[in-house]
Design goal:
The protein is of the alpha+beta class. It has helices at residues 2-55, 203-210, 214-245, 260-276, 281-305, and strands at residues 57-58, 69-75, 82-83, 90-102, 112-122, 126-128, 131-133, 139-141, 146-152, 166-174, 179-186, 189-199. It is built from five helices and twelve strands. Strand 6 and strand 7 (131-133) form a beta hairpin.
């Protein structure tokens, strides 16, 4: 009896480090996969916007014509804008961050700039020529086209701040610069379907903003492939350990024959597919999530219905 108890205790003691190792590798693997998906998803959004802009019809906003179609154009918007009291400027998009110079909550430190308030504001529908732009439906790129830091009251250059001084950091898109807009035009409105706005001074500049550099484009795929492969490899140990520990589960039985060579081959193939078809990364991600949730649910329902 004593020998049996000792063997059980030894098995539990050996199992704890293995369990911690499996948990650590699982966390590292998930992080690698999340980072790879984030890079692929961001690149997909950039490529998608560039693709839409390159195929949209260029129009004159003063004479947009009729019919529903994807269009692109540039022009200076007409208000109403968000009025900033410190600069007196009107903004299409405005981010304000206000601080007050005062005593720090930490008594061991001296006075410092302390956060007071802040927020983000977006103008209502704007007119560019004869086209009304629905900003609430827009994906705005270039939100920091203009920025400034203002200290009140104004003092001479190099003067130290005093208790009660206010510092306001402002960034946004002023209403007096051209906007480059791409979206679906319907009945004089731009906003139905995919829509995005790039704040810039010329259409050529905006197209450059949407274009990735060839260096990043060539490096991105190998980096994401390595991250995905590493993530799947890290997940292999906890996955195969779970299969060995629960061989009787119906969902596990078909996987019990998979060893490390087969698992690595599957990981390489899956990593290649995800990177190769990265323009639909978001759709693939939803499919993976649906399968990850749906398959265990179906197995559970089948087991319960068979009782």
């Amino acid at each position: 009896m004593t020998e049996t108890t000792d063997s059980v205790k030894n098995g539990q003691a050996e199992g704890k480090p293995a369990g911690r190792k499996a948990a650590t590798l699982a966390v590292i693997g998930v992080l690698c996969i999340v980072i790879a998906f984030s890079i692929l998803y961001r690149a997909e959004r950039t490529d998608n916007r560039r693709w839409i802009a390159s195929r949209a019809e260029t129009i004159d906003p003063k004479d947009p014509g009729s019919g529903t179609r994807m269009v692109r154009f540039s022009g200076i918007p007409e208000g109403p804008f968000i009025q900033d009291p410190d600069t007196g400027k009107g903004f299409v998009y405005l981010r304000r961050y206000r601080q007050v110079y005062g005593k720090s909550p930490d008594p061991s430190t001296g006075p410092d700039w302390i956060y007071a308030d802040g927020g983000v504001e977006l103008a209502k529908d704007l007119m560019i020529g004869m086209v009304r732009v629905r900003l609430e439906e827009a994906k705005i790129i270039g939100k920091s086209a203009w920025s400034a830091t203002i200290i009140r009251p104004e003092r001479g250059e190099g003067s130290p701040p005093r208790i009660g001084d206010v510092r306001v950091t402002i960034s946004g898109i002023p209403g007096d610069i051209p906007l480059f807009c791409v979206g679906r035009l319907t009945g004089g409105y731009l906003g139905t379907g995919k829509l995005f706005i790039v704040s810039a001074y010329s259409e050529g500049k905006t197209m450059d903003e949407l274009r990735e550099t060839w260096v990043w484009r060539w490096i991105r795929h190998p980096i994401c492939f390595i991250l995905l492969l590493a993530g799947f490899a890290f997940l292999g140990y906890p996955a195969l350990r779970f299969v060995r520990m629960h061989p009787d589960l119906p969902a596990v039985q078909p996987l019990s024959r998979i060893g490390w060579p087969a698992y690595l081959l599957i990981s390489i193939a899956l990593s290649f597919i995800l990177v190769r078809f990265s323009p639909v990364t978001a759709d693939l991600l939803w499919v993976i999530i649906a399968l990850s949730v749906g398959i265990p649910v179906l197995v559970l329902v089948r087991r319960l219905s068979g009782r």
